[in-house]
Protein 1
Amino acid sequence: MTPLLKFLLIRLPDRLMAFWKTIDWTVIALYLLSYFIYTRMLDAVFIGMPVQYFLQYLDPHLLRTDLWTSLLYLHAQPPLMNMIIGLLFQYAPWHFDMAIGRLYFFAGLVTVHCTNAAFAQLGVRRWLRITVMAWLCLFPTFTLFGRWAYTTHLELALCSIILYVLAKMQHAPRVTYGSLLKLGILFCLLGLLRPQWHPAIFMAWIALIWLLRRSDTRMTECIKATVITMSPLLLLFLKNFVLFGVLGASSWSGMNFSGAASNSINTEQLRLLKDSGQVSRDFPVYFRHPKAIAVYRQWEKEGSALPESDHPSMKAKKSNGYDNFNFQVYIEGGKQDMADSMAIIRNYPWNYVRHVSGKIISLTSAPSISYKCCGFSLRNIRKWDTLYSDIDQDIRYWVRRGSTVLYGIIPMLICFGAFWPRSALSQQRYFILTGLFFVMSSYVVSCATSNLEQERIRWATVTFYLAYVAMLLEMLMRKIEKKKKA
């Protein structure tokens, strides 16, 4: 029997049966119920308009008619989200909103299933799992991101699968090569959706996994899995370097970084740096399209601009009239902003450290639902204001306090429990530490390299925080039961 036939006839049915057994139909029913409540009763609408004008998307006309060449000339973003949009445009041109809505519905289904299955692997009792999953399904932020044509909901689904894989690895006798490959593939997909998921984070994460389980993890397998799974991201870096001189997944890295750097100093300090010539007069370009075009025309007069590209994906405007942020001025603008940002940090390093540290701490009390961008709001749940207008301020107060507990206090408690010898959580130290590193590294990197969207970025990893909540509650329940028996 050939290996392929053996897989199709024996292994695949076994794996499908094992997957079927992990499904908790109560949790699936909760997700379907929440979908019905928000869609039918509260009139939650899917927001597909970002595809037309958001900074991250190429010209919709080009995604329909010239997808693969346009992706080749895409330097502003990793290509996966634009590729998904382009394929949906091509294969469901008249039903695009419905097609992408179905994709996001399926991503939500994957999220709730994998999160619940991870809780089961971590030993959380069923009624407690269902309670936490009910909170996730019914919380408005989950609905809003699930009805917004952006990467966050897809990132949440991928992070939930990572959570499940890590939870399974917790009790495995050894870290298998297959598990490392799964983690690498999932992380690679995250990196192809958003540039903050950098291969360096994955390499450090795999190194931590090896350090924590050296006795049952082979270094050669870690290295091989890293090289194989990170190769698409490294090829993307190479493509951007060869075509645009940008060593990274996005030419916007410098402009994002300039937001964090410029906010770490005051206006007078910035003026002194500009007067001394350490920072350019144009700093920052930072996604101001009219200014960027004016800067580009000035560079053309001085003879320092790159020749204007013939491909329409790099023109100043999209065919629908909106600004095109894949415009080639942002290649040089990003490089200039990066150099200027580094000059600021060299002159005022502690200002930058204080700014980033303060942002990391202050954002623990900022709920993801407070994120505002182009119509992302509770208004997209049309009957929300009617239902909650009288108690909206109370809701906001308690949501902020809840965010402080979920994103600030819970990680500290779970980390303390992992190292406290008498704590039941010390037996799950491997999962806790690898999960915390995964969550906090992406959060800290985003705070250090950008001044916006940390609430949205953090929401992609919310299922890890919920797993820690469930673990703490399970430990508490077991202590109560033990005292009752005594």
Protein 2
Amino acid sequence: MGPELSNITASTNGETDLWEDISLDWSMVSAPQLNDYDFSLGVRGLFYPNGSTPIEPNATAPVMPYRDNLNEDKVQVFLSTYTMNSLASTFLNTTGFSLLITNDILPPTVPIQLNTKFLDVFLPGLAAKYGNDSLVDLRLNLTSLNNIDIKKQNETLSCHVDLAMEFLVH
């Protein structure tokens, strides 16, 4: 490794604050490779909240390729499920993800109405308590996103998601 890269790695301990609340442990898993054709670098790729101790995700850090020789792209980036799981967990713990759905943003072709009359079928007693024509907003909060799994063979991405729903009656 050249002296410049060694100095950067030593001065940061292989860690960088990326966003306001998220850090990345990019410490090198092995020495970079340099040859006549390319420069290859492998890093740990563990995201964690700033100021906290990094917590390993539920995925095992795999041995990643440096280069796909069957692909002629000049820049190649490989992301593992380990990195994706740590990013998802850290993002939800620091930033979170919430979505507010109101009746007026639903397209007319959607057969769902966000009002007490329609939702009373799923939440019995809602119309009796709040009236038959009250509008309802739906707030979705993503509380967990884990077990991200990426399969190259059949080009699929899967994950486990926990979602909290709040019904806000007007």
Protein 3
Amino acid sequence: MVNPWLNMWRSEFGYAASELRELAVSQISIDEGVDSEFRELAKLLDQVANLQLYLGSGPELENVTKAAGDRAGDMFEKYVDGAPLDEESLRFVTNEIVKTSRQLRDTGEGRRYEYGFCNWCRR
């Protein structure tokens, strides 16, 4: 079964990569020393967004997606994990997780992730 959300997600990966490249050249990113990490993550996200899909490319897509997710998770733990969230932000994040979980559930592939967001996201 073809994942009906795949094209949307790949587009979002590409958009996120573009935004990270913009952040990487900002003075605050350079001052904080995170510019190279932003560029590295952008490169990984671009690999997901631009991977040539063909019959049987699932394992390759899973590998590049896992690499991007692992790197994003590492950066999250390093820079964000300890920061407190206000109630509005917490509600927003919770709603996004629920929405994405429903999208995954609606796909045959998503059944593998029924008890978590996905296999490459450690949250």
